[in-house]
Design a protein that fits this description.
This protein is of the alpha/beta class. The protein is built from 15 helices and eight strands.
Length: 293
């Protein structure tokens, strides 16, 4: 399958967007996680030939502009809204994985009317996840030890863009595969190779720093809680690789309570956290399945 790369202006910056599929096919907008990029959706895009799939590199990631501001979840979800408008998408299916999944959850609370369906892949609802971390539910606090490290200034950027750091980033993929030999290592190498200079990693790391800031500062936290108070109204599916070591299945399955809606749970046995890079056939099936549900 061929992919077109377009540069699209939205919410004041320019995004690089990979596009595949027939122009008049049902639209799907895919949001990637950390430390990935729009290219991490390619294995799935090639299996969704009956859809028009859009996979942007999110704000701050290599390929898209990296301004010095705008990494809070309010601006990031406004980015998604602006991309839908700039790409002239009519109520697309919104698919998000990892950090893209967190943005998809929050987007659902803010803008459900702009999408036809919400599909989250291996990302617990953010409110559910934070509660679990604070309460030590199913050891969730210990499952994401890199979050405090990413709060440090400068050091994470310097590490992740060194040859040692790139090795560690690669290991963060390959050591977390659900079954040995299933990870798309060539794609992982391509993803990791983009982090050559500290500024390449600064934007992606800001997502974590800004989220912690939002949770700590009373005004920002109150604004986020107001967002959560509006239930998601779009039909919602949570696709879950069962062998995710970073995010607890027992915690994630409770996400519907904070989403304020029924959440269809679709479990993928033997699949780890990076579903699109390990089990693209299964994920493409789950995405296409809901269009006929």
């Amino acid at each position: 399958m061929t992919y077109d790369l377009q540069y699209v202006s939205a919410n004041g910056i320019k995004f690089r967007v990979a596009i595949s599929g027939p122009e008049n096919a049902p639209p799907i907008l895919c949001l990637h996680g950390f430390p990935e990029g729009g290219m991490s959706w390619r294995p799935v895009m090639s299996r969704l030939s009956d859809f028009r799939v859009y996979a942007p590199d999110l704000r701050g990631y290599p390929g898209t502009e990296r301004p010095r501001h705008g990494y809070d979840v309010f601006t990031l979800t406004d980015d998604v809204k602006s991309l839908i408008e700039a790409l002239e998408l009519s109520r697309p299916i919104l698919v998000g994985h990892d950090w893209g999944g967190a943005l998809a959850w929050i987007f659902g609370h803010r803008y459900s009317d702009l999408i036809s369906r919400l599909i989250v892949v291996n990302c617990t609802h953010p409110k559910t996840l934070v509660r679990a971390v604070l309460r030590f539910e199913d050891f969730q606090t210990l499952r994401i030890p890199w979050v405090p490290f990413l709060e440090l200034p400068v050091i994470p950027e310097l590490l992740f863009t060194s040859w040692v750091g790139r090795k560690l980033l690669k290991l963060s993929y390959t050591l977390r595969e659900g079954q040995k030999g299933t990870m798309d290592v060539a794609m992982v190498d391509e993803l990791v190779a983009r982090f050559q200079h500290p500024e390449d990693a600064w934007g992606p790391i800001q997502y974590y720093r800004e989220m912690v800031s939002t949770l700590i500062l009373p005004k920002k936290r109150a604004r986020l809680n107001t967002v959560y108070a509006t239930p998601i109204t779009a039909p919602t599916t949570l696709v879950w690789g069962e062998k995710d070591g970073a995010l607890s299945t027992k915690v994630a399955i409770k996400s519907g309570r904070d989403a304020g809606c029924d959440v269809e749970w679709r479990s993928l046995a033997g699949v780890g956290h990076f579903v699109s890079l390990e089990a693209p056939d299964k994920l493409a099936y789950e995405i296409s399945r809901v269009t006929t549900a």
